[in-house]
Amino acid sequence: MAFQDFDLISERRQNEKKQKLKKKIIIGSVSTFILLLIIAGAVCAVIYNNRQSNNAKSSPPAKPEKQISQSQKAIKMICAPTDYKQTCESSLSKVLGGSNSSQPKDLLKAAISVAAVELNMAINQTSTFKFETPEQKGAFEDCMVLLQDATEELNSSVSHVDVQTLGKLFSTTPELNNWLSAVMSYQQTCIDGFPEGELKSALQKELKNTKELTSNALAIISQVTSVFSNFVQAPSANRHLLSTDKDGLPSWMTHEDRRMLKGKSQKTHPQSMPPKYAGRYIIYVKEGVYEEYVTVTKKMVNVTMYGDGSQKTIVTGNKNNVDGVRTFQTATFGMFTNKHEELSSTF
């Protein structure tokens, strides 16, 4: 064999050794990289598990599906007698969907609350209205007074439901019916005051939801009363507002109020009432026909107007819509306050 052959064999062996070494280096590098990936994955898994454990400790327990379905079932039941079932269910679900409450009192409070919220939203939207005639502007001014009264009645209803026990609430449902019925009257009177046109249509659209929600609240009161009446005897429907004593004064009045009425204090007009008067304010109107317009404002609380008889003490006026006076402004006697009494007079 020639020496050249030995040189070729030696060179080939050296190349093979280099390739083997290169393979070992590559295998070692890949193995090291894979090992690092495994270690990194393990570390990430530990960190993730720790975070999940901490979140599980800090987060409230998941609500059972049974409770959620029970709440939805109660909402469907309470909305069954309403005229606007879809509006009722969707509005109550937004308020009570996550609370799991199925108590009649909570449902009733929520039904009135959503009507109040919707009314406030409608009032805010009407602030963008533009008026083309004095009639539209005047109707809007009357409307704002009416909607403000409606807001107060709704807020009073919510507060009343909130502080009463279910038994006491059941016995005072006539008051809730009166307040919510007044709200519906205010809303419709507001709309009726506008002349036909785009502005009236826009107002009807803005008040549509709150009118439906108020109607639903009235229906829910009847539903709650009907359900609760199966367990508690309904209060007596007898009323004694018209009963009188030997002096012809209401029998339900206190001794002090009767004494003041017998004295017939010579105050002749609500405007004579001091701004911060405490107690009952008696206004005696003597026999006669008075051509004037009387307004008892919200600040005049506990006002009693007392005349000499329905055929003797008469207050009259002649304002009417035909002469261009808005219907809301034609009342001979306007009462915008609570706890007012009118006795032995004609308006």
From TrEMBL:
The chain crosses the membrane at residues 25-48. It catalyses: [(1->4)-alpha-D-galacturonosyl methyl ester](n) + n H2O = [(1->4)-alpha-D-galacturonosyl](n) + n methanol + n H(+). It comes from the Eukaryota. Pathway: Glycan metabolism; pectin degradation; 2-dehydro-3-deoxy-D-gluconate from pectin: step 1/5. InterPro entries: Invertase/methylesterase_inhib, Pectin_lyas_fold, Pectin_lyase_fold/virulence, Pectinesterase_cat, Pectinesterase_inhib_dom. Residues 70-220 form the Pectinesterase inhibitor domain. One of its GO terms (molecular function) is pectinesterase activity. GO terms for biological process: cell wall modification; pectin catabolic process. Keywords: Aspartyl esterase, Cell wall biogenesis/degradation, Hydrolase, Membrane, Transmembrane, Transmembrane helix. In the N-terminal section; belongs to the PMEI family. This is Plant invertase/pectin methylesterase inhibitor superfamily. It comes from Actinidia rufa.
